[in-house]
Amino acid sequence: MSQDTYLSKLESAHDIEVFGEALYTSIARLTRDPRWREVWVTLAKLETQTKERLADRLRPEKAVREKPYRRWMGRVLGFAAAVAPRSWLLRVMVSETADYIKLFEELRAVAPPEDAALVDYIVAHEEAQAVFAREALAGASATFLAPVEALLER
Ligand SMILES: [Fe+2]
């Protein structure tokens, strides 16, 4: 894989985080229950952190621009997600995170050794959201954010 192709994969990952940050922020804004609002805020923080780590990696090599339509899509889908039944949303998250884990594992397979820690972190941040969604569906609210919190500002 050429360096340009690899960098464009990192850019796509950055786009996904812009979307995720807007999605969770939008859900948080529309959630009345303060405990659940804090859950979505925490998930948004993980997306922001991941987005920034990708931007830091890309910036020396190319201009990093947050695509407004990615943010807009996240906001709009966040609005829909916030009014949907929570169990439906969590089931969608289980399915979506499985797809993203696969995508990021493919990225890990082509990442140069100097990016191994970054790409491991990106896979882990997706796995943490999968754990959250599965445990939230199972009602394990005391522990469902532990993997997400462990990754924040690590
Ligand atoms: Fe993410």
Name its key features.
about 150 residues; mainly alpha; Ferritin; 6 helices; about 0% strand; globular; binds fe (ii) ion
Summarize the structure.
The protein has 6 helices and no strands.
Separate helix tally: 6
The fourth-level CATH homologous superfamily is Ferritin, core subunit, four-helix bundle
The overall number of domains is 1
* Low-pLDDT sequence parts: none
- CATH-defined architecture: Up-down Bundle
* CATH first level: Mainly Alpha
- Give average pLDDT, whole number: 95
- Helix fraction, binned, reads over 70%
Description:
This protein is mostly helical and 154 residues long. It has a single domain (3-151), classed as Ferritin (Up-down Bundle), CATH 1.20.1260. The chain contains six helices and no strands. Helix 1 runs parallel beside helix 3, helix 2 (34-58) packs antiparallel against helix 5 (116-137) and helix 4 runs antiparallel to helix 5 (116-137). The chain is globular. Bound molecules: fe (ii) ion. Fe (ii) ion binds at residues 16-17, 20, 47, 50, 125. Fe (ii) ion binds next to helix 1 and helix 2.
Write the layout of secondary structure elements.
Layout: H1 3-29, H2 34-58, H3 68-83, H4 86-110, H5 116-137, H6 146-151
Bound molecules: fe (ii) ion.
